[in-house]
Amino acid sequence: MDRRKFIKTLGVGTAAVSLPGFGCVSSQNEPAKPNIVLLFADDMGYGDLGSYGHPTIKTPNLDQMAQDGIRLTSFYVAAPSCTPSRAALLTGRYPFRSGLSNVLLPESENGIPQTEVTLAEKLKEQGYNTMAIGKWHLGHAKPEYLPTANGFDNYLGLLYSNDMIPPWVETDKPLELYRDTEPVEHPVDQSTLTKRYTEEALKFIESQKDDPFFLYLPYNMPHLPINTAAEFKGKSMAGLYGDVIEAIDWSVGQILSALDKNGLDENTLVIFTSDNGPWINMPDRMLQAGNERWHVGSAGPLRGAKANTYEGGMRVPAIMRWPGKITPGQTSAEMATAMDLYPTIIKACGGAVPDDRVIDGNDILPMLKGQAPSPTTELYYFRREELEAVRSGKWKLRLSGHLRTDVKPEDLPTPELFDLHVDPFERNNVAERHPDVTEQLREKLHQFRKSM
Questions:
Q1: Are residues 427 and 289 in the same domain?
Q2: What is the pLDDT, as a whole number, of residue 30?
Q3: Which of 304, 393, 415, 433 is 20 to 30 Å apart from 164, CA to CA?
């Protein structure tokens, strides 16, 4: 029996059996396994939260979560778009390794390979109850691509992006709300998704009294077309987009309150981040059916946005909270990535990181605790299948003509070198001043491309 079939035999939505390595009940000498809550926004920019400098959007719950834990200012996703970013989050690997470098469309026939070992599957091995609520976007054409075939006991959500319907996308496939493996709503009332996802999350948390759990909540918002429930509309100074972000902040507050109410607060690691930067450079096809150009977020002072490899496309807000483990009140510019969450969570939960494949993430828990610098010192920036940039320490080299006005499309791009410690805004290309650094990073790109 293969690994996935074995995990499935433990039972969907039931307590894990008491097998060696799978038991949920700790002895008196063993600490309880921590619960994991992973909250993942869609297209939320670096500058969309109060604690990251937005002047009019109010996010008191996320701001308090940052005060109670750590706020990271150099946290990256592995890709500036939906599917590859999610693949990297749940596998700890650059998305090209799983063949998911491109955004899946309604007609896409591919999905997450059965050979990948997801974070949920690793936690199932440790006796965790698991649930995914929200946007999946890792495949839907076959049953083996669905969340329930990839480590999650239960699922409620949309299988791909909320804009993948007419008039924004030409498709005959219906966008449906799924529960586990079956559609339960069509057309989908998107205005209440954040509220309904939150209610489902609260039910799940309240049911977890005896066993450790993993709750993965990838919100559909604030991806266009944005919408929110009536009670949140017109409340934000920042208009409808602000309403949507403040509804997500409300959701975070509800989840944190539920953890406290159920006595789970002290033993739960809560993580909030986003899948990529804001969709500032959206295509004209999106400007229909009520969408406006100001219905998107902000990368704050960063250059770039979703779908490109400047900082604004891949550097995102990240807040983590674990009372008693993560020292409160920290703000850190140490590098970390969404791929780091895979080994960090697995090790924190008593599991072993797979050793039969390349894992690109690192265990950053000592850094989160303030005990050590981050082990992550390099990041490779991909736009779809194209390797366009590398960050090593404070230096970032970008070799791409995409969005460049200083090079012609038919010419080889000249290097862009940025010192991200003094110029995180990527305003000053210093390649000519530092030819040695430029050549060192060019060689890193060359060697990594060869390894692919």
A1: no
A2: 59
A3: 304
In a domain, 25, yes or no: no
137 catalytically annotated: yes
Question: Which pair of tokens denotes residue 438?
Answer: 């430029």
Q: Which of 82, 140, 223, 349 is catalytic?
A: 82
Tokens of 306: 């979703």
Known catalytic membership, residue 349: no
Query: What is the pLDDT at residue 419?
Result: 98
Residues 37, 69: contact at Cβ < 8 Å? no
Quick one: pLDDT at residue 13? 38
- Asked whether residue 69 is assigned to any structural domain, the reply reads yes
Q: Give residue 15's pLDDT.
A: 37
CATH number, residue 222: 3.40.720.10
Which residue in the list 137, 140, 223, 295 is annotated as catalytic? 137
Model confidence, pTM: 0.93
Q: Which domain holds residue 440?
A: 385-451
pLDDT band at 35 (very low <50, low <70, confident <90, very high): very high
- Do 380 and 448 form a contact (C-beta atoms < 8 A)? yes
Q: Report the candidate in 318, 311, 321, 310 with the shortest Cα–Cα distance to residue 336.
A: 318
